[in-house]
Amino acid sequence: MAMVSAVLGLVVAGLAIPFAGVLGFAARDVADSMRDLPAALETKPLPQRTRILAKDGSPIATLYDENRVSVPLTSVAEVMRQAVISIEDYRFYQHGALDLKGTMRALVTNAGAGGVVQGGSSITQQMVKLTLLSQAKTKEDQLAAKEQTFARKIRELRYAIAFEENYSKDWILERYLNIAYFGDGVYGIQAAARHFFSTDAKRLTLGQAATLAGLVKNPVGYDPTNNPGKALSRRNTVLERMAELRVIPVATAEAEAAKPIGLKITPNRNGCMFSRAPFFCDYVMAYLLEDPALGATKEARKSLLESGGLTIQTTIDVRFQQAADDAVSRYVYPTDNAIGGLAMVEPGTGEVRAISQSRPMGLNERRGESFINYVVPKKYGGSGGFLPGSTFKPFVLAAAIRQGIPLTTTFNAPADLSLAQGNFANCPGAGNFVGTWDVGNAGNQNAGARNLYTGTAGSINTFYAQLEMKTGVCEPWQLANKMGVTVPVKERQPAMVLGTSVTSPLEVAEAYATFGARGIHCASRPVTALLDANKNVVKEYPKDCTQVLPSAVADAVNDVLQGAFRSGGTASGIPISQPTAGKTGTETKSWATWLTGYTPNLAMSAFIGGVNDEGHPISLNGQSVGGRYIGNGSGAGTTGPIWSAAMSAIAQWLPDTNFQIPPPGEIKGFILTVPSTGGMGVKRATDLLESKGFNVTVSSGEVDSSYPQGTVAYTSPGGGGSASSGDLITIYVSDGTPYVPPPKKPTKKPTKKPTGTATTTPAPTETKPGNGNG
């Protein structure tokens, strides 16, 4: 160190600052300056870009503060190593931290020019400078790393000596190639190879390598995308130097110099705006930024995500995402006075399969662009949410079933009711509701007598108001919150059953997925794991699931909600290709319309909400949305096409799985299909009917039937018909003789009379139960 210090007192000063007037100062103080510096420079991991991957492993987005992918030296083409050493430090493998020969040459040149015109820094010294720049956290640190001073040169040299003492030449060259800036937003040789030539560092050709090696000295001035002429000239300089050093033959250099650069640009796409699923990407980032395990502050978490070289494995299915995007964009345009959106969640895992909305990501409001994610909860997307309307009713339905209220419970559902809110029980200790609640049906419909099946299928408001009076307000409110739909305490009131608390499609899909998973609620999650740059697991995000409803209760809810898509249901016009349950929702003034439908494998919530130019909610009525005029908005008619289009596209990838029927006797009033028993032995038929949850009696005597004597002739209600669990099924036993109707009496021709006409009416044919349908 003493010897190096003595030599460098003169040399370093001439390189660091203008030649005149500093040599004596440098020679006098350099040794002391070297000894005062730390012995080594800590080399922190280089910032690397993060990739976000879909469920199938395909990339959907790239995030970075510095666009870099670090690679080992063995993954860099030998010609690339030769090119950069030839042009930057041809004696790299022969000298130590300081190349005295090169430094003295630069000193003489600078002295003749009266200033710094040529650098003498070795690759190791350059690597030190780049490391200091990379690790600078403040503007002051950044300026100190670039200042043209004697102190900086001494500091860099001291660190270079330490590197040469502690690391191999290959390690230093590897770090140099990975840390160097190559211009146009790319750092490191792998990102440069990919960006400028759409290839990998290990596959670079001679011409490509010479081009990239030439960029290191002045990545802005020689940038081939902005200064192709200068870049070409610089490339040829590198080729000439390689030939001069006999790294390549002169003829090869001349032949290569005659070729164009041959750029093949892969664009830099940093951030969610360039993602194939921008708002899902945005949701992923917001979700991870809420995780304290990734850093003490959001700033620290953001830094890790943008520079940690992570691989983020997500739950998105790109097929489902494409279907969602196509459906939403087809029925809601970006500049409409409306927002359309759709969320898909898998029951039993909570994995989010797709997030889509009609407003593209961006700043151009004239094109309808926005950075607000309207499909996810406010803390992840910034939207205040939309009123869900009748999509809230299933929480009251589930509470009623869990409380043992029979599904056959009937209320008269007139067009409107005025109900004393004091008759609605609140949560214990929360006080009583006061005042009256005036509730009416859509279209002023007098629905008549309805039970839980028909009242739900028709989404009858006055029916559900009376049902909530029986369940109380507390249990439906608790269920909603446990299932993912946040309803504040201040909005816990009787009118809650009609959807008076704003929510998001993702929350609704999460809740309905709970029904599809037979009462198991799984929190929505877009991420399954984080891996570091070496593919080691940083953190896993397993499913977070809890049984919040008895499976039999959820099964009964599923059975009732299938009525929405059947004849008489509010979504009966929506085509389905497999067992599907769900609910429509329309806010009173059509400020928002919903259709949430689900199978045992996927819950999908679609909505359209009216929004004016200021971002305030407005009615959809009278608006043109997606080129369609909306006279009176409805869940099925307005939003149903979005849901239907998406489901039609993805149904091919969903298993055809049936909802389960609750075990016999667990749900009161459950409507079941009576099994066919014709021709069975009486005991076997009795056992079958009782196993399905029915009570059974056998009629005395026998009846005419073509089935063998002593077997079941028919039942009442008959096979294929419907009955509630616990209902009485009567078995009629066959006498083995088919029923033969009596012969018809012959009819006489009428006799004409002078006045009027008389006819003889045949006796009515006697009817008697025969084989039936079993």
TrEMBL record:
SMART domains in the cross-refs: PASTA (SM00740)
GO cellular component: outer membrane-bounded periplasmic space
PANTHER family per UniProt: BINDING PROTEIN TRANSPEPTIDASE, PUTATIVE-RELATED, PEPTIDOGLYCAN GLYCOSYLTRANSFERASE
GO BP term (any one): cell wall organization
Reaction it catalyzes: Preferential cleavage: (Ac)2-L-Lys-D-Ala-|-D-Ala. Also transpeptidation of peptidyl-alanyl moieties that are N-acyl substituents of D-alanine; [GlcNAc-(1->4)-Mur2Ac(oyl-L-Ala-gamma-D-Glu-L-Lys-D-Ala-D-Ala)](n)-di-trans,octa-cis-undecaprenyl diphosphate + beta-D-GlcNAc-(1->4)-Mur2Ac(oyl-L-Ala-gamma-D-Glu-L-Lys-D-Ala-D-Ala)-di-trans,octa-cis-undecaprenyl diphosphate = [GlcNAc-(1->4)-Mur2Ac(oyl-L-Ala-gamma-D-Glu-L-Lys-D-Ala-D-Ala)](n+1)-di-trans,octa-cis-undecaprenyl diphosphate + di-trans,octa-cis-undecaprenyl diphosphate + H(+)
Family: In the N-terminal section; belongs to the glycosyltransferase 51 family.
Keywords noted in UniProt: Carboxypeptidase, Cell shape, Cell wall biogenesis/degradation, Glycosyltransferase, Hydrolase, Multifunctional enzyme, Peptidoglycan synthesis, Protease, Transferase
Keyword RNA-binding included in the entry's annotation: no
Cross-referenced SUPFAM superfamilies: beta-lactamase/transpeptidase-like, Lysozyme-like
Region annotation Disordered: where it falls in the sequence: 733-774
One annotated GO molecular function: serine-type D-Ala-D-Ala carboxypeptidase activity
Composition-biased stretches (Low complexity): 753-774
Location of the PASTA domain: 665-735
Protein name from the UniProt record: Penicillin-binding protein
